[in-house]
User: Fold these one by one.
Assistant:
Number 1:
Amino acid sequence: MNKVIITVVGKDTVGIIAKVCTYLAENNMNILDISQTIVSGFFNMMMIVDMSGSKVSLAEASDNFDKLGEEIGVVIKCQREEIFDSMHRI
């Protein structure tokens, strides 16, 4: 399995989850786990996604998420699970 961690942070607006999930579905990426919260008007979401069947590479998806984030006013980061784990082990 090719797991990646996707984080989405920014001011809460209508359609954030829909737009991110639409991109995932269109590119054959499967959501394995998802958590989201809103605190004082700020949206925060973390997803674990399987990219095994993806139509795009991780680098391409990351670039596309940067563009999508700009369009909807949030920051979207995408990184391999093992890198995420290593960064948060310390």
Number 2:
Amino acid sequence: MMITKKIILQWIQLFIGAIIASIGLELFLIPNNVIDGGVVGLSIMGHFMFDKLPFGVFLVVLNLPFLYIGYKHIGKNFALSTIIAVIMLSFCSEVAAEFPKVTDDPFLAAIFGGIIDGVGVGIIMRAGGSLDGTEIVAIIADKHSPFSVGEIVMFINLFILSGAGLLFGWDKAMYSLVAYFVIAKMIDIVTKGLDETYAIMIVSNNPRELTKVLNTVIRGVTLLHGEGGYTGDNKEIVYCVVNRLEVTKIKDIVLSMDEHAFVTINSVHDIVGGRFKNKSH
């Protein structure tokens, strides 16, 4: 019963994301010849070149080979969520295309269309799906090349945006670049949240006293047992997870109690369980 409910909620998320993304695409970006990157961008260009074929047809057809690769290398659940998201977006785009575009200004279309499209895509990604087959290629290529996933995606999108320049004109290609960055930022906000979370590790000569003080001002502190790599001495390392506003407070407390403490601060992208609310599921 719980699994069925989880699947239904996931499908609802995918559908809501598809509705929002289709509004950004069909009411802002596509009518102004402003494109997103990846398969969505290629689909917009295909729709422009073959006007009788709808955007959704290109989105499904161009994603099929990437979905097969994703099924083989990433997993069945990812491939299933992605094909559902693609089909839903194709359907919603057909409906949204019947409405008039909101603006004739390509810059406004890039900004507001990018925001709306990015929110929709972000919701789809939170539900475990994807609309961009090039990301699947990038994830697999990352294992066999010195480049990161982000670098590979950017490299692919440079070719796609260059194609937009040849097809629509270089001014539209530059507007498309603006839209691409707005969409990427909105996806980050939706998938990671506005409240950034950080993991802090502290190596101090007074870990117990420091723990007592920190426990009075933040949610919880953990002591990790370690050993000095050079001296071989036993060490107790203070570990805690805090939000962005608490970082400065923690640093001030630590340095006021032990000016020789060693502190590392790392951004946390996802948290499951514990006292922090999970932001991604």
